[in-house]
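Lab notebook page, bench 4
Experiment: in silico fold of construct C2
Operator: M.H.
Input chain length: 96 residues
Purpose: comparison with the prior construct
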Amino acid sequence: MNALKDVDFPATKDELVEAARRTGGGSEEIVAALRAIPPDEYTNKDEVARSVRVDPASGLGLSPAQRAEQARKGGRRQSQHLRDAPKPPVQEELDG
């Protein structure tokens, strides 16, 4: 089930969090990930997914340097090589 299936974009962070709670498709992990994104207006699900920070402990096949860079830069400012990294489970749920 897609946590953001009923969201009308553009949407703010608060609207995204509320939509994930309301649909019931947002697990606690999804809701927590959405709470952690920058307070911004998002134009589509891809922007939301790129803004979700990945837990550095999750690995995702990234080197320690890549994980550190991703943690520092987060969301929309990620360099291309980090955007091409395997999708974290949160992003797979958002893409659902």
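Observations: DSSP finds six helices and two strands in the chain. Residues 76-81 have pLDDT under 50 and may be disordered.
Next step: discuss at group meeting.
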